[in-house]
Amino acid sequence: xxxxxxxxxxxxxxxxxxxxxxxxxxxxxxxxxxxxxxxxxxxxxxxxxxxxxxxxxxxxxxxxxxxxxxxxxxxxxxxxxxxxxxxxxxxxxxxxxxxxxxxxxxxxxxxxxxxxxxxxxxxxxxxxxxxxxxxxxxxxxxxxxxxxxxxxxxxxxxxxxxxxxxxxxxxxxxxxxxxxxxxxxxxxxxxxxxxxxxxxxxxxxxxxxxxxxxxxxxxxxxxxxxxxxxxxxxxxxxxxxxxxxxxx
Length: 248
Fold this sequence. Notes:
This protein is an alpha/beta fold. Helix content is 29%, strand content 31%. α5 packs across α7.
């Protein structure tokens, strides 16, 4: 079993859905929309999609990892809703959105959970944002959340605090690569038998200023930058970078 497969099984314990995030998304829905359609790109195990669907939104999640999606579909089915009323979870690559949905299909496109920086660099990020704009209806909203790399790089990649659950010890750390990206190191130790799983994934450390520039070049306006999902002001010392922008 790979480190990512182990992470998928324990994902909701390590990263429990915060109701504040659900409220932030709900507050970002264009008021002119009647039947709101929301796309969550990089939905993981689908906890946010299920919460949005429970609030009455027409929510769809995509992810490239089949283990994550299997858990998402299983938990959606366990919710007791008829199949036709369940949120949908689709296999998809965030680099190929236009091949998955028709233009203007959604009122809100989400890319949360530090998903955006799994792309290789500014060019891929710009192409993703352009495709996301194509999927948004006029006046639609794009919501992005990544870690605050202005802070992370300034403090020389200080390690994350450990996350410990009843069944797992989860550790994370960054290291610099020669190509300007970071390696994101994961370590998961299962308490039941002491088995350890380790892996590393390249990330592009996208700062606020370049992201703001790319948003402008790909057809977004009125970009707002927050340091959390409560709407707190962003600063260099913020833990997160949360962005809300409108399709021009």
